[in-house]
Amino acid sequence: HSSYSRTKFMETLTPSSDNLFSNQRRRDLIGTKNDPFGSFSLPFFRRIDCNVESALATRQAIPRANPDHLRPIFDQYASKVHDGKKYMTSEDFIRKYLGLYTEDNFNKESVKILASAADTTKDGDISFEEFCAFEAILCSPDALYLTAFEIFDKNSSDSITCDEFEQIIRHTQPLHDMPFDFDSDFIKRYFGKDKKRSIGYHAFCQLLHDFYEEQGVQAFKRYDNRGDGSISSIDFQKIMTTVKGHLLTNFVRHNLIAVSGGGASGHKFSFAHNQVTFPYYAAFNSLLGKMELIKRVYVSLTRGNFDLEVTKEEFLQATQSYAQITPYEVEILFHLSELAHPGTKTLSLSDIERIDPERLKRTSHLNRITNIKAVQSKDERGFGTAVLETAYRFALGSIAGACGATAVYPIDLVKTRMQNQRGGSFVGEVMYKNSLDCFRKVVKFEGLLGLYRGLLPQIVGVAPEKAIKLTMNDFVRDKFNTGGHIPLYGEILAGAAGGASQVVFTNPLEIVKIRLQVAGEIQSPGHKIGVSSIIRELGFIGLYKGARACFLRDVPFSAIYFPAYAHAKLAFADDEGHNSPGSLFSAAFISGVPAAGLVTPADVIKTRLQVAARAGQTTYSGVIDCARKVYAEEGFKAFWKGTAARVCRSSPQFGVTLLTYEVLQRLFYVDFGGTRPSGSEVSIHKTMLDESSLNPDHIGGYRLAAATFSGIEHKFGLFLPRFEVVKK
């Protein structure tokens, strides 16, 4: 309670402190109304510390406002003038500036109590210096507790007495509805046997946390008329809606009687018919206070698949490493969940969202360019919405496919030339020792542009090809999706369907691309081969030459690739089940290695069938004929020609393609009410920043002022009466 002279304080401001105190701030310090006798009290130093701490360590919340910008805003709303200085009254600050308690019949005492958070001198008026100091508090990471402490610290002594605590707490709505014994052992443990001891900030925070737990226990004892440790379901509902109302969502509030009437799986929660035992009461309240931990267990168990429904046994197994969660609480959790969907004894994220009083939001770590909600819920999803979702996926898949193909096209060209290289040499044909030698000779004889021969038809064709493959895979996976779970055979069939559907685009594209890629091998300056000449030569039917081999390659490739990718994503996801762009690329790249390598024989056969044979080279009549002749003339190793090049091409191509496809879905977010790619979102509690004010006069910390006062009510249960009581 000692004070420090302003002169000595200003002398201690070293040059290193200059960045924390502007000239205007220094003038505010010297001319502050906080202490008219030229000294600073300890509460004021706490204010200064809050300023400094906010400037140094709390940038992640919201940046401080410049006092020069706050001055005209303060002057605009301040209606009281004393000795030439402007002051805000309680109503100026709460009703006019913050826009709270704007009703005509507002509770005047509640407004004064809220305004006292900014009124350091507790004289009923708020000076500009106090206005700036409270803005600093609102920027601090523990703004909720600091603001509550300022409200209860009625004499600005930086400590709280039992009388101060009782005076404020008795004005809250829960104390109006449910009496509390302030002579209880609970109060004496905090304030001493004679209730004369004062408590500081940290002790107050703990008191605020524990108070409503104690009130709940006292309320239970009050309604336990028989002294047998049980109360009626009606009394249980009354206690929960008055004392514990801040923990209840509308769903829980409306099902209090139902959930207290009995349990699932043959377990009875209540002591007797329509009776609630104290163990159940304690477990129920404990569960509501642990919903953030419950969500973490669910996310860890599902690895980011927010549509997955887990059983009670699976959830119990996942909670074994969390001593804070008891089996009784899990029983109650699943009973509440079952009330939302009778007969289905599973838990999903939507069930947790119904129970969690702190609202959850699903978000991505990437800033969304679009954020469109096509339907409000899955129940509104119809045929038209499903068609739009398919078109959306097709469009993004086209872009992703084009990006992937362009990125690895030089590797694809080398792979094609290596696979087409026959056992003997021919006049004018360039021979390659290996893939690196092929790359060097293409650059040497055809230039850098030679690495991109046939790119145009590849881009034109690969867009619908990859789009239909990705779209079909997602479409079939959705059909096998039951409660967020897709069986392995469903994943394989979905991948195979995607591979089969793409052949209608792939085969014409491949045959034109391959003939353009090998066109540079024969040195004939006077003869130029182009896309149109190849199409005229082949005709429509010829464009599907080697289609069987294409099926033989693409169907098993996709059947291997997409299930491997789905499981690799889960393996690379973080603790929140989120996949970063790096983990997406790694999962897509690694999944392409076995898929591309194992189907190389089919790719060799397809290439041989689609390339125009030159004079003296072996011709093939079909898939089986090609396989026999290749084995007879070149041996078993010939089927694995270009494996390294194929893996080096397919793995990065699908890495780029799938990365682009998923990132585009995050950037251009549209919610069609269907399934989202796993790992694309994280589910977090909404913060005060999500509720920040849009009022242009609310700058700096004042963007969070209304949300802070609301948070005090909903987190601590400090609900103040909004209206004056009309006396009859």
Description of the molecule:
Homodimer (via N-terminus). InterPro entries: EF-hand-dom_pair (IPR011992), EF_Hand_1_Ca_BS (IPR018247), EF_hand_dom (IPR002048), MCP (IPR002067), MCP_dom_sf (IPR023395), MCP_transmembrane (IPR018108), Mito_Solute_Carrier (IPR051028). GO terms for molecular function: calcium ion binding; L-aspartate transmembrane transporter activity; L-glutamate transmembrane transporter activity. The model is unreliable at 1-60 and 262-271 (pLDDT under 50). The chain has a 3-stranded antiparallel beta sheet. It has a two-stranded antiparallel sheet with strand order 1-2. The longest helix has 38 residues, at 383-420. A hairpin with a 2-residue loop joins strand 3 (80-82) and strand 4 (85-89). The protein has 728 residues and is mainly alpha-helical. It is built from 31 helices and 13 strands. The chain starts with a strand and ends in a 12-residue tail after the last helix.
Question: In short, what is this structure?
Answer:
Its main location: mitochondrion. The chain is mainly alpha-helical and 728 residues long.
Shape: elongated
User: Which range best describes the helical content: under 10%, 10-25%, 25-40%, 40-55%, 55-70% or over 70%?
Assistant: 55-70%
Main sheet properties? 3 strands, antiparallel
Count of individual helical segments: 31
Number of strands: 13
Which spans have pLDDT < 50 for at least 5 consecutive residues?
A: 1-60, 262-271
Beta fraction: 5-15%
- Chain-averaged pLDDT: 80
CA gyration radius, whole angstroms: 36 Å
The largest sheet has its strands arranged as 3-4-5
Distance from N terminus to C terminus (CA atoms, Å) equals: 46 Å
Helix/strand class? mainly alpha
